[in-house]
Each structure stands twice: as structure tokens, then as C-alpha cells.
Amino acid sequence: MSGSVQTLIGMGAYLVLIIAIGLWFARRSNSNPEEFFLGKRGLGPWVAAMSAEASDMSGWLLMGLPGVAYFTGMGEAFWTAVGLFIGTWINWKLVAKRLRSYSQVAGNAITLPDYFSNRFHDKKRILMSIAAVMILVFFSIYAGAQFVTFGKLFGYVFGAEQYFAVMVILGAVLVLFYTLLGGFLAESTCDFVQGILMVCALLLVLAFGFVHAGGFAGVSENLAHFPRFTDIFGIYVPAKAAGADYGFLSILSCLAWGLGYFGMPQVLLRFMAIKKSSKIAESRLIAVTWCGLSLFAAVAIGLIGRAYLPDLLTTAGNAENIFLHLAQRFFPPLLAGIVISGVLAASMSSSDSYMLIASSALANDLFKGLLKKDAGEQLVMWVARITMLVVTIFGVSIALSGNNSIFRIVSYAWAGLGATFGPLILFSLFWKRTTLQGAIAGMLTGGLMVFIWKEGISKIGGAFGVYELLPAFILSCLVIFLVSLGTPKPSGAIDKEFEAARTAEF
């Protein structure tokens, strides 16, 4: 039996497990929209924590981040990981419990746009509509990044890079299939399994890579040939085979990744779906531990990969395959298939979340919330399924557009979601004076500024070259604050709900 066939068997065993989970939850999760989109707030602490982190990190964790570390060294990868770790902890510490309570106090909201609309008593559903459109746009881009991962993974493993498009489509169809079957509960349970597989795969490859590369001495000696490669304040420039300073603004851009967490619907929904708010502290410990281990391992794999295979991968896109190269070199084909399934798990755990959240945005928030308020539950769920199909097609088109850098695609969508929703989440939960007008203005400012900064202002360079999430997030906060102060105070009913959410326990 050939190595490729054994690898395929290992990956196939994992895929059978995931499909089985989808079938298990199919009947239960298709009963009504609340079950399908939020699992009736029934997640335990382990599933909530692991599914939140797995759906958040995506294929970027096993391919994008190690690829950056392999290609340019410690600087960018290290500070990005630090920003994400801090953002994860603060999000679980500050946002999780308050959002769990407020989303239920505010009309038992089952989606993020639904929460925003109920929180500000937006009878015209303007805020809900804007939020739903933003989710559709940025999650379609996000899904495209995960489909790129499918193409790279299968193309590399089976030596069929010329069939990249076919592999992208097959991976997308698979995720669409089990997400359609089981909804939020299937997705969250799959993500729990996938989170375990991801961290195990990372730690296994890291341990074997460290030994094969010669331990500390061998890694240090080999990396010394690449100027500034292990310097957290420096960066290796492959085109010049030289090092350069990694300046303050660059570091600030990387740390700004942590701001994105406050606006990530796939994470925020897990906060809303936790069974009891008293379990959040336990979930936080699990999530932060998983995040720290995974980020450390991902960066270290990129560095060890450069020490072990210094000249193998010569472009940023190819460098994202370093995890796959190491896994296939260190393990027998069958075990390699299971380890490599960690990449598949990472991509699937994210793309299923993106498709489900995008479908809920259109079906529950736009269709039922705005266009046809008397729509029955089954009609809403059929609209959701059709939306999933459309998002999948759009994501595939992005994956086939020619931009094969997972890291760069994800950074764009991350900035868009973080700046659109992050400031408003914080203001809505912690500042009673926030008004509907301020919320609308802040959301639009954050989302639009990401496009404006990325496609226009950043081209000026210098200080304007900072990661677009940072200026967009700051401007959104300023707009929410100033517009809220300049408009009438919220009603007594809104104030009453705010105080109820502050002390509520569910």
C-alpha cells in the first residue's frame, strides 16, 4: 500500500468521524432556528472553550502563522501571537459573562445582529441589517481563506497541485454537507474534536521537529545563518538575505490583532451559547491554555522548520506548507494522515462557523427580521441553507482568485470584523449612555475604514502603513462616543435592561 494511500486512510478516518457527528445532531438541530443557530444555549465549558478557539484560529494557525515564522523569522510571528493571546484572555475575562447575560435579557437574542438590535431597541432593524451585511461580506472572505487551505493541503499531500481548484471545491462541499446537517450543535461538537486534534498535531510536530533539528544547539546554529531571524525586534528579509529592524509601528500592528477578538462573531456566539454563566471561568482557563500552547507551538514549528529545511520553501505562499513537510517527514504515512488532519480540522472548524453565522445573518436577521417578519421557522431554516450554499460558492471564488496567502486573506477579514463589531460590543456592554445613533455610526465607520485604510491610506506608507484594524478600531470607538454624547439619552427601558444584565445570572 503506497504512502499516499495510507495518508488518505488516516485523513479519511477523521472525516468519517466528523460526518458522523453531523448525522448524530441532524434531527435535533433542525427542529427550530434557536436550536440550529445557537444550540438552545446548551454548551458545556469544554465544548464552549475549545470550539470558540478552534473556530477562531482556523487553518491560519497550522499553516499561516508557521509560514510567517519560517519565511521572515521571529519578529512578526511572535508579536502577532502575543497580541492574540492577550486578546483571548481579555475577551474571555471582560466580555463573555456580560454578553451571555445581556443577550438573554435583550429579548433572548440568538445572533449577534439580533443582540445589537434588541440591545438598542432598534424597531426599524437598521442596526441589525448593517451588521448582517457586514457579516456576509467578511465571512465570505474568511471562508475563502479556509478553502485555500483545503487546496494547499490536498494538493501537497497527494502531489496534485495542478488540481488545486478541484481540491478547494471538494473541501468546501464537505464542510457544507455536515454543517447543513447538524447546525450549531454539530459544528460546536466537531470544533471541540478538531480543537483537540489541532493542539495534539502541533505539539507532536514540534517535539519531533525539535529532536530532528538537533535540539537547542542544532536549531540555534542553523538559524544563525539568517540575520535577525530569532530577534523579536528584527525581521529577516528573504529577498535580500539580510535582516532589518522590526519597528514600533510594526509591533503595534501585530499586537493590534488582539483587538479583533472583541468583534469575532464565531467566538462571541460561544459566549452567548454557554449553558451557565457560572461555567465561564472554567471555560476561560481551558481556552487561554489551549491558545497559549497552540500559538507557541505554531511559531516554534516555523523556526524549527527553517533550521531543519533551510532552503526548501522560497516564497511566502510555499512557506505555509512547512507544517505539512515536517509531518510527512517525521511520521509513518498512516500517522502522518492523522496529524495532517489537524490542518483539515483547523480549516473545517472555522469555515463551518463562518457559513452558519453568515446564513443566520441573512435568514434570521435580514429575511425574518426585516423582509418577512411573519416567516415560519421552517422557511427561515430553508433560507439559511440556501445562504450557506451561496456563501460557499462566493468563498470558493475568492479561494480561486489567485491570492494564495492564507495569512494575508485572514488578516483582511479579521480587521473587518474586529473594527465593525469590536468597539460596539464593548460600548454596548459597558457604557449605558451608548445610543442607537452612536452604534450605527460606529459600526459603519469601523467597517468602511478597514477598506479605506487598506486600499488607500496605507499606500502612503510610513506611519500610515499600520495594520488597518488599529486605526479603524480607534476611529469607531471615537465615533460611538461622540455621536452618543450628541444624541438623546437612551430610554428608561434600555437603562433598566442594562442594569438587569449587569447583575443577571443564567
Description of the structure:
The mean pLDDT is 84. The chain is built from 20 helices and two strands. It has helices spanning 3-29, 33-38, 45-57, 60-72, 74-105, 112-119, 126-157, 164-212, 215-223, 248-255, 265-273, 280-308, 316-319, 322-330, 333-371, 377-399, 406-430, 436-455, 469-485, 492-503, and strands at 234-237, 242-245. The relative contact order is 0.19. The chain starts with a helix and ends with a helix. A two-stranded antiparallel ribbon has the order 1-2. With 506 residues, it is mainly α. It is globular. Helix 7 (126-157) packs across helix 8 and helix 18 packs antiparallel against helix 19.
Give me the number of helical elements: 20
**Count of individual beta strands:** 2
Based on secondary structure, the structural category is mainly alpha
Give the rounded overall mean pLDDT: 84
Percent helix, as a range, is: over 70%
Q: In sequence order, what are the helices and strands, one letter per element?
A: HHHHHHHHHEEHHHHHHHHHHH
Strands of the largest sheet, in order across it? 1-2
Largest sheet report: 2 strands, antiparallel
Shape: globular
Whole-number radius of gyration? 22 Å
- Termini distance? 55 Å
Strand content: under 5%
Low-pLDDT windows of residues: none
Secondary structure blueprint with pairings:
Elements: H1 3-29, H2 33-38, H3 45-57, H4 60-72, H5 74-105, H6 112-119, H7 126-157, H8 164-212, H9 215-223, E1 234-237, E2 242-245, H10 248-255, H11 265-273, H12 280-308, H13 316-319, H14 322-330, H15 333-371, H16 377-399, H17 406-430, H18 436-455, H19 469-485, H20 492-503
Antiparallel strand pairs: 1-2
